[in-house]
Design brief:
Elements (H helix, E strand, L loop, with lengths): L3 E5 L3 H10 L11 E6 L12 E4 L4 H11 L4 E4 L6 H14 L3 E4 L12 E4 L2 H7 L6 E5 L15 E6 L11 E5 L6 H10 L4 E5 L8 H9 L3 E4 L10 E2 L2 H12 L1
Parallel strand pairs: 1-2, 1-4, 2-3, 4-5, 5-12, 6-11, 7-8, 7-10, 8-9, 10-11
Helix pairs in contact: 1-7, 2-3, 5-6
Length: about 250
């Protein structure tokens, strides 16, 4: 019986996994059928090959219903490391349907000599740290959650995101719409041009947005790093699409 794999996507790793597994019609002669699910929060997402669905499931129960209705054999949660809600919904739906679940998570960043990192467990904690670290903030946490910084009227923010953020925003905010990958040269120039003296980022991992960390280290500025939430208990984790493919092969046996 051909496996039907539901890939909860929206990341580079999810797209790479779909490219490995799926043809244009969503299946291969000797491989699984693949459906990639996107949340639909980005206006013009880069679509993976194969079958694609866009939008939410209606919570854990709705995802479980979709899994049953479409005879899903396995679920791979390859969402953003900070997409906590969908990850826990996937864990609940997988338990309810007795379908195997794997989390595909790129490794987090690791500080090196010269880094001035200040860890935070949430955006709210990051906001509390900022007044003691700098006055001109490069905010790279995405368009969601900027309300956590809205009360910091004494600070200036350069907020970068793929799509325009929604209010409330900090009182003094310049929005920069851009999509990675970003070059080291570009990040250096951005920090210099805007006289940035502190960077805020989520520990997303990966190479596409890592140059900002190098640029911050070179400039000697502090970096507030928001720790990623844990993977739900009992869910195995793969670090690469190749590891995810190897996990799927164990199910085919």
């Amino acid at each position: 019986m051909t496996l039907h794999v539901l890939v909860l996507g929206g990341t580079t790793e999810a797209r790479r996994l779909a490219e490995t597994l799926a043809t244009a019609d969503g299946s291969t002669a000797d491989g699984p059928r693949v459906t990639s699910s996107l949340a639909g929060r980005v206006a013009h997402p880069k679509l993976p090959p194969g079958e694609v669905r866009v939008g939410g499931f209606g919570g854990a129960d709705g995802m479980a219903e979709w899994i049953r209705a479409h005879r899903v054999s396995a679920v791979i949660d390859a969402t953003h490391p900070f997409a906590r809600t969908i990850s826990f919904h996937a864990a609940s739906a997988a338990r309810a349907t007795h379908v195997p679940l794997l989390a595909l998570r790129r490794p987090g960043w690791v500080p090196v000599a010269g880094d001035r990192w200040h860890p935070a467990d949430s955006l709210e904690e990051a906001a509390r740290l900022l007044p003691g670290l700098g006055r001109r903030v490069f905010l790279t946490t995405g368009r969601m959650g900027l309300a956590a910084f809205a009360g910091l009227d004494a600070l200036w923010f350069l907020a970068r995101s793929v799509d325009a953020p929604e209010p409330p925003l900090p009182a003094h905010t310049e929005v920069l719409l851009d999509r990675g990958p970003f070059s080291l040269e570009g990040e250096r120039a951005l920090i210099h041009r805007h006289r940035v003296d502190v960077l805020v980022t989520k520990d997303s991992g990966g190479e596409a947005t890592a140059p900002k960390l190098t640029a911050a280290r070179e400039a000697g500025i502090p970096v507030v790093v928001v720790r990623r939430p844990p993977v739900p208990d009992g869910v195995p984790v793969a670090a690469t699409p190749e590891e995810a493919v190897a996990w799927l092969r164990t199910l085919e046996g």
